[in-house]
Amino acid sequence: MSLKFKNAKRIEGLDSNVWTEFTKLAADPSVVNLGQGLPDISPPVYVKEELSKIAAIDNLNQYTRGFGHPSLVKALSCLYEKFYQNQINPNEEILVTKPVDGKKCSSSDWTLDPQELASKFNSKTKAIILNTPHNPLGKVYTKEELQVIADLCIKYDTLCISDEVYEWLVYTGNKHFKIATFPGMWERTITIGSAGKTFSVTGWKLGWSIGPKHLIKHLQTVQQNTVYTCATPLQEALAQALWIDIKRMDDPECYFNSLPKELEVKRDRMVHLLESVGLKPIVPDGGYFIIADVSLLGL
After folding, report:
1. Once rounded to an integer, what is the mean pLDDT over residues 166-171?
2. CA 178 – CA 163 distance, rounded (Å)
3. Integer Cα distance of 135 and 284 in angstroms
4. Where in the chain are the domains?
């Protein structure tokens, strides 16, 4: 007799999504998966060297000390201070665009509609999820747009969860602003970052959340009872790598500065290739994804 087991209702359908579909289609070796790709960008040499050195220290191969390794916490705090000095609900159509016919389409053509956004807020609005630079559109929110969001968050006492994992991948003519640095926003903002995106080590699966103690303590509770801990050697290696670049943030050799320049060349090449086969790409101002209009293919 065979037994039939069913998934819990709360996870039904999670095994069927666009990523699993792409992966199956790309199993054919002749297919190039443009949905996820196969990154060939090597992380900085010093990042790999730090991991090698840390792995050789025995006491750093055990459980992480506390919710975050002290070195990592200190490095992130310094990074955030340096920066100080120097997705909205996907079910709601808050971003609108008015592309000009014949004009190359850019992610900056998607602009925030202040009235539409304001209509979504009320006394029961608990939180808003912001994603800038945006994945996958590549939009980098302007200072003025972020101020609109900040004003609404303050007016309705709303929490802002700001996904800024692509904060260093911003291309020429654009600037990333952290909404947590806006007046009145630090105490109501959780900023999310990513080692994978910052240092091109997506396989490390290591990230962070920065915010005031009264908000972060709740994230620590969830972390403690779900993931529990992250790989200690990876945290320490990341901390040391951050220290290296924090000390040279104004230097062109700093990875925060060199990576977007390297990827901008690849972005422009990909845009040209897509246009050469009759597609109309949306040129991203940040991040490393490109969306293209395929309607001309008649599919």
Report:
1. 96
2. 10
3. 10
4. 64-97, 107-247
CA distance 33 to 134: 21
- The first and second tokens of residue 210, run together, are 């920065």
Q: Are the C-beta atoms of residues 178 and 192 closer than 8 Å to each other?
A: no
pTM above 0.70, yes or no: yes
Q: Which CATH class is domain 107-247?
A: alpha beta
Three-state SS at 121: coil
Q: What is the dihedral of CA 224, 228, 230, 232, to 10 degrees?
A: 90
User: Closest Cα partner for 282 from 132, 100, 105?
Assistant: 105
What are 77's two structure tokens? 């705090």
Q: Which residue has tokens 């509770």?
A: 221
Q: At what angle do helices 232-246 and 45-55 cross, to 10 degrees?
A: 140
Once rounded to an integer, what is the mean pLDDT over residues 25-29?
A: 83
Structure confidence by residue, pLDDT tens digits, 49-94? 999 999 888 878 787 766 666 777 766 666 665 554 443 343 444 5
Q: Do 171 and 286 contact (CB within 8 A), yes or no?
A: yes
R_g over Cα of the chain: 21
Q: Which residues contact 23 (CB under 8 A, 6 or more apart)?
A: 33, 36
**DSSP strand pairing (189-194 vs 159-163):** parallel
- Quick check: bond before 133 cis, omega within 30? yes
How confident is the model at residue 202, as a pLDDT? 87
Q: Which one has a higher pLDDT value, 28 or 169?
A: 169
Instruction: Say if CB 286 and CB 169 are below 8 A apart.
Output: yes
The H or E element that residue 56 is part of is none
Integer Cα distance of 198 and 262 in angstroms: 13
Place of tokens 């968050």: 153
- CB distance 165 to 200 below 8 Å: no
C-alpha angle with apex 273: 267 to 279, nearest 5 degrees?
A: 105
